Amino acid sequence: MSARLGRLGPAALTAVLALAAASCSSADSGGGAEPTPAPAPTEAGPEAPAQPDAETPAPEPAAGTDSTAAAPAAADAEPLVVSFIVTDVSVVAQALGWEVPDQGDLEAAVEALVAHANAAGGFGGRPIQPVVRVFNAITDSPISEEQLCNAITQDDQAEVVVITGQFQDNARPCYAAAGTLMFDVTLFPVDRAGYQDLAPYLWSPLLPSYDDLVAGLAQALESSDWLDGATVGVVGIDNDMNRRIFDQILSPRLASAGSAPASVNWVDPTDGTTLEAGQQQAILDFKSAGADKVVVLGGSRLASWMMDIGATQNFSPAYAVTSYDSPEFNIRNTPDLMAGSLGISVVPGWDVADDQYPYPANEAESLCLDVLSDAGLVYESRTNARTALLYCDAVRLLQLTGETAASSSPTDIGSALWAVGDSFEPASVYSVAFAEGDYTGSAGYRVFAFDESCSCMVIRSDTVPFE
Fold first, then answer.
1. Structure confidence by residue, pLDDT tens digits, 150-164
2. Angle of CA points 273, 331, 445, to nearest 5°
3. What is the rounded CA–CA span in Å between residue 191 and residue 212?
4. Averaged over 338-362, what is the pLDDT?
5. Which domains does the chain have, with CATH numbers?
6. Cα distance between residue 321 and residue 251, in whole Å
7. How many helices (H) and strands (E) does the chain have?
8. Is the pLDDT of residue 45 over 60?
9. Which of 18-32, 247-261, 363-377, 404-418 shows the lowest per-residue confidence on average (mean pLDDT)?
10. Which residues contact 173 (CB under 8 A, 6 or more apart)?
11. What pLDDT, in 10s, does the model give residues 227-249?
C-alpha cells in the first residue's frame, strides 16, 4: 500500500477518496450553526473587467443581483429556510499530509451573501433564513451522511439545501425522499438519468451532467494531438453510470479517433482493500498493454490515487483530466505526475491560476467579492474564494427565481430556473444556461493542459459549448 493510503484505515480511506477538494473549516462534524443575521452590505464596487467569454451573450440585468433592485424582504413574512453544507477537510489534510487552500470563514460568507440577498427582496419578498451545517470529511460514511440529511430535513426543516461534499450514494435520495430541493455545487458525477431519477429535487445549477462532461472531454481529446500515437487505458469507478457512459460515449469516441482502449479496468470502491487492489490490477494491465495515456471515469479523486499508486510502480502516464479529477489538488501535492495531462475545466477556481482567467472575470464575480469584502472577507485569489463564489451564485439564483416562481416548491423553482435560460451571469463558472427538462446549468468548458514550465494548468481555448 502506498505511504499516503496507509495512513488511514479502509473506512476512512474510502471517505477520503470520495470527498474531493472541499472547503476547510474548524467547526465540529455535523454541527449546525444557528442562523445569524448579517448587516446589509454596501453596493458593489468598481466596474469589473469585461467578461472574457466573447461568445456568451451579456445577460439582461438579473433581478436581485443589486441591493437596490427590489425592496428588502418583509421581516414578518414566512422565511425560506436554506441549509448550507460546509465540508471540513482539515483533519483529512493533516492526516495525509495534503496541502489545501485556505477558504476563510465560510459561515460568515454565507451570512453576508444571504443578508445582501434579503436586502434586495430575499425570495420573492420572503427572507432567506440560512442554517450552516459543518460536515467533517474524516467521519464520512453512509450513516453520517444520512444523519446530516435527517438533521437538515427534520431539525432545520429546510426547503432548500446547498450541498458541498456528500459523496455517498444514499445522500441525495435521502433529500429527495424528504421533498427537499437540492442546489448541488459538488463535483460529484451524476448523469442525465440520475437527475431524472431524482427530479424535480436534484439540481446542479452551476455544473454539467457527467455524460455531457465526458462528451466534452472526448471532444477536447479528439481535437488536440493528445491521442496521436497513444496507447490508451481506461479506468473507472465500477458502477452502472460509468459503464453506461463508457459504452455509449467514451468508447465510441475513442474508437472513431483511432485510439480504441488497449485496456479497460473497473475499480470496486467498497473499501480501501478493494479500492487499492483494483488500481494495482489496472496498473499491471496498463503496463502490460503499453499504455502511455490514461482516461479516468467517475471523478471521486480516482485520478489522484492512480497517480500516487502508479508512481510506486514506475508507471507515470499522461492523464486526461476534468475539474472532477482535482487537477489543482494534484498540482499542489504531486506536480510531477501531472506531466502531459490535458482535459477540460468547468470551474476555474478548482483548476487554474488567476493569470489564466482574470480575477474577477465579470460583473457577477465582482459583485460577489464586493459583498464578501464589505463583510470583512477578502480573498487573495479565486482558489481561496472558490467555495464562497459557488455559495454566492446559489443564493443569487434563489433570489432570482423568487422573482417569478409561483411558490417555493421544487417544481415551481425549477420552472423559474428554466425560464432564466442563458440570462444569468455566473460568478463561479464560465457560463450557465438552463433548458426545460434538464437539471444542470453549466453551458460550456475550456480546454486546459499541464505546462511544465509553470507547473500549472494552462487554458488553451475560449469557452466551448457542451454538445
1. 999 999 999 999 999
2. 100
3. 8
4. 97
5. 5-209+360-443 (3.40.50.2300), 211-355+446-465 (3.40.50.2300)
6. 16
7. 16, 14
8. no
9. 18-32
10. 198
11. 999 999 999 999 999 999 999 99
Which candidate, 235, 325, 318, places its Cα nearest to that of 283? Answer: 235
Q: Return contacts of 443-447, CB within 8 angstroms, 24+ apart.
A: 443/56, 444/53, 444/56, 445/208, 445/213, 445/216, 445/220, 445/344, 445/345, 445/346, 446/344, 446/345, 446/348, 446/357, 447/220, 447/223, 447/224, 447/342, 447/343, 447/344, 447/345
Q: Residue 454 carries which side chain, given as an amino acid letter?
A: C
Strand duo 464-465 + 444-451: pairing: antiparallel
Measured between alpha carbons, how far is 263 from 286 in angstroms, rounded to an integer?
6
Scanning the structure block, which residue is given the C-alpha cell 498540482?
Answer: 331
pTM across the whole model = 0.87
Q: How buried is residue 257: exposed, middle or buried, by Cβ count under 10 Å (0-12/13-18/19+)?
A: middle
Q: Are 191 and 209 in contact (CB under 8 A)?
A: yes
Q: Is there a contact between 296 and 235 (Cβ–Cβ < 8 Å)?
A: yes
In this prediction, residue 219 carries a pLDDT of 97
Q: How far apart are CA 369 and CA 364, in angstroms?
A: 9
Residues paired with 344 in a beta bridge: 322, 447
pLDDT band (50, 70, 90) for residue 43: very low
For the chain, the first-to-last Cα distance in angstroms comes to: 40
A 10 A CB-CB count for 178 gives: 16
Do 360 and 85 meet the contact criterion of CB atoms below 8 Å apart? no
CB atoms within 10 A of CB 326: 23
Task: Give CA–CA dist 77/413, Å, rounded.
Answer: 18
Statement: residue 23 has pLDDT above 70: no
What does the angle CA 10 – CA 15 – CA 20 come to, to the nearest 5 degrees? Answer: 140
Q: What is the largest CA-CA distance in the chain?
A: 69
